[in-house]
Amino acid sequence: MAATKERQQLRRLPGSRRPVLIDGNNVAFEHGNHQKFSPYGILNCIEYFIRRGHQPDDITAFAFASPKGGMSDEEREAFVKLQDVGFVKTVSKKHYDDL
């Protein structure tokens, strides 16, 4: 009975959108043509969901804290900015598949 009560409290309001979780590593490497980690792919994905009406607070991308793939200084700065704003949460490689 307690589980039912908790489930009712977790229900979305009518018309609200579901939270968005982005696999930041796959999105960033796909955007970098499988050659490098491109945080602009994550940014494009975030912008896509915002245009579709999702609230920025409901969008989160997960990525490695130190992604491999030779980012330029500009790309590294963009990645850090996405972290600072709260769109990107970093995880260790050990726990990435557990998400």
Structure description:
The chain is of the alpha/beta class and 99 residues long. It has one domain (18-94): Rossmann fold (3-Layer(aba) Sandwich), CATH 3.40.50.11980. It has four helices and three strands; from the N terminus they run H-E-H-H-E-H-E. The protein has a three-stranded parallel beta sheet with strand order 1-2-3. Strand 2 (59-64), helix 4 and strand 3 (88-91) form a beta-alpha-beta unit. The longest helix has 13 residues, at 39-51. The chain is elongated and about 45 Å long. The mean pLDDT is 85.
Key descriptive features of the protein:
4 helices; 99 residues; 43% helix; three-stranded parallel β-sheet; alpha/beta; single chain
Structural class: alpha/beta
What percentage of the residues does DSSP assign to strands (E)?
5-15%
> Which strand order do you get reading across the main beta sheet?
1-2-3
The CATH class is Alpha Beta
Count every beta strand, where a strand is a DSSP E run of 2 or more residues. Answer: 3
Low-confidence stretches: none
Q: What count of structural domains?
A: 1
Radius of gyration: 16 Å
Reported by name, the CATH topology is: Rossmann fold
